[in-house]
Design a protein that fits this description.
homodimer, 73% helix, 10 helices, DNA-binding, 214 residues, Tetracycline Repressor, domain 2, mainly alpha
Chain lengths: 214, 214
DNA sequence: ACCTGAACACCGTTCAAGT
DNA sequence: ACCTGAACACCGTTCAAGT
């Protein structure tokens, strides 16, 4: 689960009535819409409230400030991505390293591409916040999933699995973000994605204790 | 040189007198200071002006808006990084692939680490802006430098040098950013840096036409 | 050519009042 | 328990006036 956010960013209260839960959903949905339609610097509490059909005061019942709204939005999003990656990893226990890497890169890339406008908007929105806790929680969750997967590989083991795994994830996360921030053609993007897979695989082979022992 | 920024982000005028040049420098310096001391969301035009010892009106003579100030700051910074990478690349023409990769990762990582607080602050500040043009210009400049270097390698050539090179840079840029956004120990960071070098190298070997032909 | 700072429209956040 | 919206302090940006 996501780590508890810093106090000044945590939601004020949870909705206790169905009406309130709907209000919250409307606020999140409105935030995404304003973010996409107007951009981060035009994302104002007034505009979000208006689009959500509530008053500003209502927003402030759930979130102590604007940042915490964006924080919660990113948290939701990362939860979904993490869940997808976890599921993929569980499905590949015992497989070959090649299958694992392929599946991992595909799952992560796919999760980020599904709604690429939202992904981009959230990458940007995250800047305002004290988001280290958020990123760290996400990283550790994925870390656990991929470590367990790699440890079960049928064709290789690593002297320092922890380091290899952290490196692998830093490279995948980083590269995907870098690609998303540039304006590349779809085919160039697809090419890089496939090259990234190749690259991760050749790294794992080079780092494999198994191979070194042969 | 850096590409011309979008009209709404380009500086209003260049300083024509020594006094004005000093004013501009003071504004840039103040911006970095406020960014480091107070963070992005407390970076206000008033605060920057006050710290720079000028009035707000003066700032607006040089920059049409707050974004353009951050744009110019990032431009300056990326120019310095690009220059360092270019110099490193020129120095390795004709060397082995291993030397090149090592030098490239070191140069880039080093440039970003030199003032890591500034690097982090600028990564964050860049979010507000329409910074695609900025990133693209930087990427293309480095791209040209590394392509020329790799093409001169004494021990390998590539079927699709362009793709290999773009992938390599996306991975390096992305990974470095990812590492900077996390809170890792110094030794963990050093380890990842060295692993990244290994990884790039094993990728280049795998992608080398030379080796495939053997 | 360069600088000033009061003025304006707008933003984040609060809180007394409502259902 | 939940929602409202006027009120307040502050922000980005302008522009008439100064040197």
């Amino acid at each position: 689960m996501a780590a508890t956010p810093p106090a000044h960013l945590s939601p004020r209260k949870k909705p206790r009535q169905a009406r309130a839960a709907m209000t919250l959903d409307a606020i999140f949905e409105a935030t995404i819409q304003v973010l996409l339609a107007e951009g981060l610097h035009r994302l104002t509490t007034t505009r979000v409230a208006e689009r959500a059909g509530v008053s500003v005061g209502t927003m402030y019942q759930y979130f102590p400030n604007k940042q915490s709204l964006l924080y919660a939005l990113n948290e939701r999003y990362l939860d979904i991505v993490a869940e997808k990656v976890e599921k993929t990893c569980r499905g590949k226990h015992g497989a070959t390293t090649a299958e694992m890497v392929q599946a991992l890169v595909d799952a992560y890339w796919q999760a980020k591409t599904e709604r690429r406008d939202v992904t981009r908007a959230l990458y940007r929105s995250a800047v305002e916040l004290d988001n280290e806790a958020l990123i760290e929680a996400f990283a550790q969750r994925v870390d656990a999933a991929t470590i367990a997967m790699l440890a079960s590989a049928s064709d290789g083991s690593y002297v320092d699995l922890h380091l290899v795994n952290t490196t692998l994830l830093a490279v995948i996360f980083g590269t995907v973000r870098n690609v998303f921030e540039r304006n590349l053609t779809a085919s160039m993007e697809a090419d890089i994605r496939s090259q990234l897979t190749t690259m991760c695989l050749s790294y794992l082979k080079a780092a494999s204790a198994d191979r070194a022992a042969r």
